[in-house]
Amino acid sequence: MDIAYIPSPSTGVIHLGPIPLRGYAFCIIIGVFVAVWLGNKRWVARGGKPGTVADIAVWAVPFGLVGGRLYHVITDYQLYFGEGRNWVDAFKIWEGGLGIWGAIALGAVGAWIGCRLRGIPLPAWADALAPGIALAQACGRWGNWFNQELYGRATDLPWAVEISAGPNRDAGTYHPTFLYESLWCIGVAVLVIWADRRFKLGHGRAFALYVAAYCVGRGWIEYMRVDEAHHILGLRLNVWTSIVVFVLAVVYFVLSAKLRPGREEIVEPDRSGDEGGKGSAPADADAADAIKEAEAKDALTKDAASKDAEPDAPKADLAKADLAKAEPAEAPEAKKL
């Protein structure tokens, strides 16, 4: 009896002449565009300038790809440097293998460089991009479906994924852990957007919430996987990583809320020297006009006062002259007395 299942692509590559189009790469590219698009909308809504998210992503994405690949190669070094392995395969990123922990860590370094060049705070930029990163991961996980990798234990559930026989894998139907993680990431993105609107998260707390929520899902999903991995005290390495990163994210969230409550009022200073972000230039222009108008009114007031004072000067002189004439006449009478 045939059971329902999710079929896997027969190949993860489509050739257009000599040009290979790889499903794994397409999923990553789509994820990057989604993250930048949503991040830009959130950044502008916070008072930033359009295009800033994309400018910083030019630094963050390459660093993130390198970091993700390094984490994968280091934690699964036996796949590339073991007996009978070819170390050159470590550079074949299109065959799969990106560790989100390394991608976030080194991607943050690239983002920090970009933020420094633009003079904006990294935590504010990370908050704007947080739900977009979760959606990018949701898209990227479908690259594992194209490569028939990162599946869970065998199952006959209707949503099981069919895996064909290949190197280091047996044909059968398995838990589609790539699908579970993709759906979980979508839920994380919704959670961060809701919490950010409800509680006005700032100073990196929206990003910390994304990290903590993702780690919760990654922990139980990782536990279901059956691909080769290092174990520590009976748990897969990535499960321990999820636990540690979750704790760090929660600690940062709590301390940040106490030390820097509220949200940043200014996320992107004006390069012309003004302190405001979006909308600051018109405000400064209005202030300058008000100052000029006040100065003009003061000038008019002074002119009017000087004109009013001019006619009084001759009258004052005549009064002094009359007083001078009167004094000699009164003096002799004073002597007679």
What do you see in this structure?
There is one protein chain. With 337 residues, this protein is mainly alpha-helical. It has 11 helices and 6 strands. It has helices at residues 23-45, 52-75, 78-81, 100-118, 122-140, 142-147, 177-199, 205-224, 237-259, 280-309, 312-336; strands at residues 13-16, 19-22, 161-163, 172-174, 231-232, 235-236. The strands form 3 sheets. Strands 1-2 form a two-stranded antiparallel ribbon. Helix 8 packs antiparallel against helix 9. It is elongated, with a radius of gyration of 36 Å. Mean pLDDT is 83; it is low at 273-288 and 327-337.
Question: How are the SSEs ordered, and which strands pair?
Answer:
Elements: E1 13-16, E2 19-22, H1 23-45, H2 52-75, H3 78-81, H4 100-118, H5 122-140, H6 142-147, E3 161-163, E4 172-174, H7 177-199, H8 205-224, E5 231-232, E6 235-236, H9 237-259, H10 280-309, H11 312-336
Antiparallel strand pairs: 1-2, 3-4, 5-6
Helix pairs in contact: 1-2, 1-5, 2-4, 5-7, 5-8, 7-8, 8-9
Largest sheet: 2 strands, antiparallel
Largest beta sheet: strand ordering: 1-2
Question: What Rg, in angstroms, do the CA atoms define?
Answer: 36 Å
Q: Low-confidence stretches at least 5 residues in length (pLDDT < 50)? A: 273-288, 327-337
Mass-distribution shape: elongated
Helix/strand/pairing class, anyone?
mainly alpha
How many DSSP-defined strands? 6
Query: Strand-residue fraction?
Result: 5-15%
How many angstroms separate the termini? 147 Å
Averaged pLDDT: 83
User: How many helical elements?
Assistant: 11
